[in-house]
Amino acid sequence: MTALFTLERLTKYLPEQPEQPLFSGITAQITAGERITLLGASGQGKSTLMRIMSLLETSDSGSIALDGKPSSAWQAKDWRKQVCYVAQQAVMLPGSVEANLRTVSNLHSIPFEKELAAQLMEAVGLSRIDWTRPAGDLSGGEKQRVALVRALLLHPRLLLLDEVTASLDPGSKQEVERLLLSWSEREHTAYLWVTHDLAQAAEVSDTVWFMAEGRLLETSGTADFFSEPSTDQARSFIHRESAQGGVADE
Amino acid sequence: MSNWALACTLVFVVVTILLSVQRKLGLEKEIAIGTVRAAVQLLLIGYVLHYVFDTRKPALIVLIVLLMITVASFNAGKRADRIPGIRLRIGLTLLVTESITMGLLLLLHIIEATPQYIIPVSGIIVGSSMIVSGLFLSQMNRELEAARGEIETLLTLGATPRQAIGHSVKRAIRSSMIPTFDGMKTVGLVQLPGMMTGMIVAGAEPIEAVRYQILIMFVLSSSAAVTAIMLGGISAKLWFTKEGLLRKG
């Protein structure tokens, strides 16, 4: 299958640590509709990798391409319309909940999909929220879900999800997982989802990318990753995370 | 003012230096340099103006105004000297502000088309616009820190750089214009502006001095608006790299 997105030998150094790369040699592919979780201990540069993939940061070497076309050949705005990053810390734009939901429509002068927005809000458990409420007054979990719905209304082909359920209660988390699975199925949207929750990874992905020691050590099927990880680092990561409660139900 | 009286004004500098020494502020060198520069620059411009007023050559007036704009652009640009091309944008903005404002003043015969009027009023316009530009850039620096999340969120949703930074630019424009309008509200009550005071001291009728000051206040309000809005517009893209990344604050 032709790759939707490719990463080729990506390397990133942090300014405060110029002698050792945050990560190096990251090479991988994402196909249309593919559901991937990105696992790894904190500090591996998973968020930085996603920010590079959404053109919010640059790598120090290597390249990324969408539809086989390198990022340098794209207008950043056109790239980001197809590759949408949803940050862990949801930022609400000034104005009401509805103003936030209308952002994509306003930015791109396209009709507001009000019915779809309402369906998505219901799917993430926010059906009873008042759309005229100032978005800044929402709780952390509510902001996170509004931010997700706002991003889905862009209809990107690849979603980069950075711990988007981190501030949600178990019920809301499951609602978001169900929504993203069905959305991916329906819209053929691929996603790369950073999570520390192994049970969630097993539930929502077909493929796991595992980062450790500044490298992408594994890209394997989710079932294989959890049953037969091919590296010691992955084995000990699964063991450690499982002991802390994120047990995969494979 | 006699030379003796002028020399006596140094007593104020001495007071400042003594206070700095007594309070261990460490500003003595700054004060001394500032004093010498101010005296030399003002005396020089005095002689230059004397020559220009006598010769009445339009080319010289244009040259002096362009020099003012160049110096003002470099000075205001210090607030954002990591942004490539910002000084050129400031220079262009000041040039347009000066052209519009001075053009209207001359076209409507509000002031006489003589160096005695054009050069001092241009100095006031360019100087004030330089301050507005500096305030705009300072506020934009703060916006790049405080509103980074907002700008990046808009970028992730496919906004163009101009769309993403639009709110920040608007806030910076407002913030850079407010001091001018605050000044208009309190002028005459809190402070007597330098130009008006100078005219009165030089023997002009207070009412005549006030009429000119009103003219200057109104000119400053429009030049602040033109400067802030134009600089906001033509610098919006500079806050991003050519790859479309938001620059660091």
Task: Describe the fold and architecture.
The complex is a heterodimer of chains A (250) and B (249). With 250 residues, chain A is α/β, with parallel strands linked by helices. Chain A has helices at residues 46-53, 76-82, 97-101, 103-108, 114-123, 140-152, 170-187, 198-204, 222-227, 232-243; strands at 3-14, 17-31, 35-40, 61-66, 69-70, 83-86, 158-162, 190-194, 207-212, 215-221. The longest helix of chain A has 18 residues, at 170-187. Chain A is globular, with a radius of gyration of 18 Å. The model of chain A has no long low-confidence stretch (mean pLDDT 93). The model of chain B has no long low-confidence stretch (mean pLDDT 92). By secondary structure, chain B is an all-alpha fold. The longest helix of chain B is centred in the middle third of the chain and has 32 residues, at 115-146. Chain B has two domains: 1-55; 57-239, no CATH class. Helix content of chain B is 78%, strand content 0%. The A-B interface holds A 54-58, 71-72, 75-78, 80-81, 84-87, 89, 91, 93-94, 103-104, 107-108, 147, 150-151, 154 and B 149-150, 152-161, 163, 167, 243-246. Chain A: It is found in: Cell membrane. Chain A: Pfam families: ABC_tran (PF00005). Chain A: InterPro entries: AAA+_ATPase (IPR003593), ABC_transporter-like_ATP-bd (IPR003439), ABC_transporter-like_CS (IPR017871), MetN_ABC_transporter-like (IPR050086), P-loop_NTPase (IPR027417).
